[in-house]
């Protein structure tokens, strides 16, 4: 074996990377274990402990802090952890209207309406749709008349063509999406979500947000859908505010005499705060009594540090600048509660308004407090976001990132006055705070009066900082409302059940494979098991190192990959057996077995990898999770099953170990088999045709396929009752509350678990539509007089549903095309490619037929959704894997005869030989994967039962198709001699 040193080096290197990646889980687990021991069941104390450890080094040697380690551990998906998954859509229709100052032109507004309708029906680019519709309605109309204004004269001229206007609108649309992304991200950060995940869905005007652990839906709805409000405020300097802060501290000390809460004790023990004397720090070694006394005497300064520095005389002095306080994130709520107390509000001047920084100081969890100066009688800001005409990320003369901000005509006049006041004292230049959603993004110091409305904002910025700030400045310029069009909520109890079921199915499936390989292949089977264990270790390590999210379908993907990785070992071992039966030595048989099996292994794994990539591109959410683990697993399996196992075999041979590839029962299995697959192919055609015709008949009888809300839009809720419920009774109770629109009610595995699906108010754009539907649901469920819990819910808007339908079609057709091209290139025969593609369509039709025939018969849902498409594509990969193995054997046989192709009975004989000689591998691989899927189906939980059923069905159909359809059909597609 060549390159053994390199393979060992790569295995060791990959092992080190995986150990490093997985080590973070052990570190965080140890810290969290200590937190639980410290808290003794008190969640507040546990959270406080973890917050205090955020910046403390906890990783040995490297010294990484807990917050960093937490960000590097395995990311669990919402289906395993609980939380919310939200899809936001930026309203480009309202953006376009706003850019044109909401014109009353009938053709303009009709074009916007038509474009929105076409977008809902599956269109992609709203701007293109709008321009096309306007040009149809007004062939001679000029869009520049609506959009070219004095404020955007630098970007759009008055005589601009419609194409130039389209380009301008496209840039503004992209900018609006970017701005919304920044704003939503800052709101989520402020909400305190741990490890949120946000993604802009490229090519669309949508943003996908995952928030693990979040359950307060109404608060999230308000948080995400509220309109942004950009403001500019003058701010007080630190030295101007300190006397007020000292007065607040004294007042609190006199009113909070008997504070005995445990949280105060914890805060006093962990915080080194500056007290009223400035610069004096609480001695953390003092007794608890002294700490509590200090906290009691200085309640504000116990949680809020006043910015100071050491002066030339060695004494502490107030630090100049707009920041008036620092506090840990966990203590911001305490400071807020102090400032809101009636006795405090009465002593704070009316011109004061306190605001926090939008994000903590870099590398910490410490937020800055600002004192905003209210200069108007009505309490409004000095300047609003509507004063901004544009803002750009730029560089100053020294090449450092900065932001250039442009004001409108009215805004420039006000800006001149504000900046003149802020820079009037050359020895004490003031700052102006840039505020969005009552959080301070930046508070730059004004150096000079700015008369022309063009300002440069500089500071210790990175490129990302200036890009974000420029987007923030443009956020208040034009309204582009963001609305929730898709939503998925999983309760924590359901998430824990998913973890338990997933782990159980994982362990059992893995044990099934290990036992099978050991029993069937004896000592060689143990080599394969060792490779499987290393493979599993590599898969988990790679997933963590890439930051991939582990979901329940992802676990199913890992289990499936482990089952499929056995395929490579079976291919090799069966070829080794053939060589041994020819009387070759064990060493030579192993060498020849690996050599002859490699083309089939490469072909079969490449086909699955291609389909995994297609799944990842076209899928989203759980489908992408499945595809991620599938792709990673295939690459890892190839490395372990082929290279690692070969190294182990060579090591055993060097030690003269006796290597066996079976026992007396299994060694001669599948020998001397000669089924006439080609001769009976017409019988198989008839069987398939009957099933497909029956499926078509049931399709019309049932009124079509049962589409999930993924493909038709709607909401569904998983509701757990304290006892078993009758679905028809629940439906009857709910219907009156849904305006007599009967929902669909089904059991979700057990009689006390119901899945309730409805399209009630699904197209309602109102912000409170979700609450209206849930209130109606709860009102109807209350009539059942049974205790219940809504464990999860999902919402899919009509636009998302139409997009998913087209993506599903595209995924299936594109994968068929790719497979067709691959087979033709690999085997250089058109009839092989046609046979493979026909078999793929045959498999899809059979699975759909069984779904229509069995719908309503089985005790679980057989809906067509995203997970079904993932199953279909996986089924197609099964067929392709089996088919290319047979094609490889035919190609090998042709090479032995020295012919490029054969015809007639000779061709039939060769095809039958190829099918029979690979039958052991086909049956063994199919049975292995089937039993693995069966274990997942039984123990994996209700949430993926329909998905796994499609895979089980596909495993059987894929095996049948590869033996009876895809290869035999080559005979009918091939030319006669």
TrEMBL record:
InterPro entries with a match to the protein in the record: SecD (IPR005791), SecD/SecF_arch_bac (IPR022813), SecD/SecF_bac (IPR022645), SecD/SecF_CS (IPR022646), SecD_1st (IPR048631), SecD_SecF_C (IPR048634), SecD_SecF_C_bact (IPR055344), SecDF_P1_head (IPR054384)
Keywords annotated in UniProt: Cell membrane, Membrane, Protein transport, Translocation, Transmembrane, Transmembrane helix, Transport
Any Pfam family hit: SecD_1st
GO molecular function: protein-transporting ATPase activity
Membrane-spanning parts: 6-27, 502-521, 528-549, 555-576, 597-619, 625-649, 683-700, 804-825, 832-853, 868-887, 923-941, 947-971
Superkingdom per UniProt: Bacteria
Residues of the SecDF P1 head subdomain domain: 380-480
Membrane-related topology note: Multi-pass membrane protein
Domain (Protein export membrane protein SecD/SecF C-terminal) ranges: 487-645, 781-975
Chief site of localization: membrane
Domain Protein translocase subunit SecDF P1: 178-235
Localization, UniProt: Cell membrane
GO BP of this protein: intracellular protein transmembrane transport; protein targeting; protein transport by the Sec complex
GO CC, alphabetical: plasma membrane
Function noted in UniProt: Part of the Sec protein translocase complex. Interacts with the SecYEG preprotein conducting channel. SecDF uses the proton motive force (PMF) to complete protein translocation after the ATP-dependent function of SecA.
Family: Belongs to the SecD/SecF family. SecD subfamily.
Quaternary structure (record): Forms a complex with SecF. Part of the essential Sec protein translocation apparatus which comprises SecA, SecYEG and auxiliary proteins SecDF. Other proteins may also be involved. Forms a complex with SecD. Part of the essential Sec protein translocation apparatus which comprises SecA, SecYEG and auxiliary proteins SecDF. Other proteins may also be involved.
Protein name, entry field: Multifunctional fusion protein
